[in-house]
Amino acid sequence: MDYKTAYSIEDFRLIAKARLPKGLFEFIDRGNDDEIAMVENLRALENIKLVSRVLNNATIRNQSIELFGKKQLMPIAIGPTGSAGLTWFEGEIELAKAAAAKGIPFTLATSSMTSMERVVKEAGGNLWFQLYMWPERHLSHQLVQRAERAGFDALIFTVDTPVAPGREYNLRNGFTIPFKFTSQNVLDVMSHPHWLFHVIGKYLATSGLPRYVNFPEHLQSKITALPMGRSMATNESLHWDDVQQLRDLWPRKLIIKGIQHPDDAKLALQYGADAIIVSNHGGRVLDSAPSTIDILPGIVQSVKGKMNVFVDGGFRRGSDVIKALCLGADAVLLGRSTLYGTASGGQAGAEAVIELYRREIDRVLGLIGCHDVANLGPQHLFTKN
Ligand SMILES: Cc1cc2nc3c(=O)[nH]c(=O)nc-3n(C[C@H](O)[C@H](O)[C@H](O)COP(=O)(O)O)c2cc1C
């Protein structure tokens, strides 16, 4: 199957599955522990039903929004995923270009394989930078200053991973940290020659094995020597003081990612954040976390009208995005789906995924009789009684 004949996110997922080595695909596709939170994100969205209002002139359908004073063509953004650069040669640039072409923001992760300056220069568009605060805080602060100089519009501070999550499938796949060559994973890579030649081969021919190029020089390592972001991603001492320091340091929009409690949303507001992302990391961290769509309304209520509230986790259809907007989210971030798109066809594959969401959002607006995403609200949700 080719991305041109993919008609759903599941189609893109299957193309990615065929193209990527199993160890890498599962790292992207799966959750952690028993994968309850990951499945719960999907199930909770499925369980919400929309109300259709008819005979309301469905010729008018607007899904553009204004976010941080800028017009955005769709109510979605690309969230941070540390591995886009492994799904395709320079995948972060491909994905960022797709986002720019479709008029939505792209977030570059700390653990990306392309330098932040190159992404700004080559992709342009509305760019956000995601930060994992390292235990050596001064190094992270230097990174933040670099992101400011590079021209990123917003900083996303991810706060939901103070300790490393359990991901047994990585161990079963021999996808260990640090990466060790075993007969199992060498066979896995060799049986995906297209990926080997077109991704790893191109890196080898240009810049060498992929590295975390945004890390400070002395910490940069090849993927054969450093975990997939893990060792540097966790910081057990994360604290609200870190938000305070970032607020003092970063003059543009500050977004806290990984909020799951209304009181933490209030604290984020108190510490000067401009927005929060209601997120359980796509069900990749705390396996007993509730689905994000279930906790969204309470969190929206706690900071209503005072800051932007975004949400992510399990959004695979335009109708899912509509449901989040009905429940008060200002926008939805995508994780895995645009990675499947990038793995399927680089920029073109990622654009095809974004276009799929655009078409589906447009269609659902028509079917429920809503003229503008700004008008979505609880009146569009079905409640039994
Ligand atoms: C492969 C992968 C890598 C990720 N890397 C990061 C990261 O580096 N930083 C971060 O804040 N979130 C990261 N996330 C979480 C996403 O930003 C997002 O919260 C999640 O994927 C949303 O759920 P969805 O994949 O169901 O859309 C990652 C997710 C995936 C699937």
In short:
The protein has helices at 9-19, 22-29, 36-47, 84-87, 91-102, 116-123, 137-150, 168-172, 183-190, 193-206, 230-233, 240-249, 262-270, 292-302, 318-326, 336-368, and strands at 65-67, 70-72, 76-78, 106-108, 127-131, 154-158, 253-259, 275-278, 308-312, 331-334. The protein is of the alpha/beta class.
Describe the structure.
The structure is a single chain. The chain is of the alpha/beta class and 385 residues long. The chain has one domain: Alpha-Beta Barrel (TIM Barrel), CATH 3.20.20.70. It is built from 16 helices and ten strands. The protein has helices at 9-19, 22-29, 36-47, 84-87, 91-102, 116-123, 137-150, 168-172, 183-190, 193-206, 230-233, 240-249, 262-270, 292-302, 318-326, 336-368, and strands at residues 65-67, 70-72, 76-78, 106-108, 127-131, 154-158, 253-259, 275-278, 308-312, 331-334. The strands form two sheets. The chain has an eight-stranded parallel beta sheet with strand order 3-10-9-8-7-6-5-4. Strands 1-2 form a two-stranded antiparallel sheet. The mean pLDDT is 94.
